[in-house]
């Protein structure tokens, strides 16, 4: 098993890619600290890992709130004794996020809090434990939108995800000497609930599909198996970098 004896904290793990990653990492031998604002689904996700023979706890938390994150990390440490992998996955993409002219200040602040400040907070409270144990792998979920402009703007989302890349580089440099790695993944459109509001019609789907050289939208497994590599010791000389996994969209001029 690729994550034997490791402990992984995965944010936003009640649904979508976070939940699938929690299940995959548990199958690979890791003990999982799941967290989400969706309490019922989070509890069910932890129970289903336990039912399959894995180790998991669910700790409800709003990852944009310092008190919640502090409690989350302390609960994880007191339950499993360490956090070897911090997977900053929780994120939102509200329909109200459009151009700078039309996006409200509240929407901007909310997206920055959930997508960017959350990772600052999770790192802030987890890193002291990682420094003490002299190892750790931090995985930040960014997006391929940071590399491209779009005629359908989502300004706050793109900026929040760009900030994650800057943080990834800085943490890799600061904490590399302590044996801590920090990398990011930049997915293209993956079939999860996050994008439901974008798929309003067949025309909207096809507008995006025609941009993808590999001819399909992404699957959850396209992302989480790369996260598994970053979480494992197989990537022990990989830090301060990111992988774009988007079916080729960001290479496509015409
Ligand atoms: N789906 C895509 O196409 C896509 C593409 C690029 C990047 N991403 C990123 O991947 C990550 C996972 O997205 P997904 O597609 O699985 O979406 P999802 O909506 O299925 O899952 C996101 C999870 O985060 C949780 N969450 C939201 N706000 C939270 C908060 N304040 N505190 C704790 N948990 C919170 C949600 O309840 C949900 O369970 C996100 O960061 C997203 O921005 C997704």
From TrEMBL:
- Please give the SUPFAM superfamilies that the UniProt record associates with this protein: NAD(P)-binding Rossmann-fold domains
Which molecular function term from Gene Ontology is one that the record holds? oxidoreductase activity, acting on the CH-OH group of donors, NAD or NADP as acceptor
Q: Which UniProt keywords apply?
A: Oxidoreductase
Alphabetized Gene3D superfamilies for the sequence: NAD(P)-binding Rossmann-like Domain
Judging by the UniProt lineage, the source's domain of life is Bacteria
Taken from the record, one Pfam family name reads adh_short_C2
State whether keyword Oxidoreductase applies: yes
Family of the protein in this entry:
Belongs to the short-chain dehydrogenases/reductases (SDR) family.
Protein name in the entry: 3-oxoacyl-ACP reductase
Record organism: Dictyobacter kobayashii
Highest classification ranks of the organism: Bacteria, Bacillati, Chloroflexota, Ktedonobacteria, Ktedonobacterales
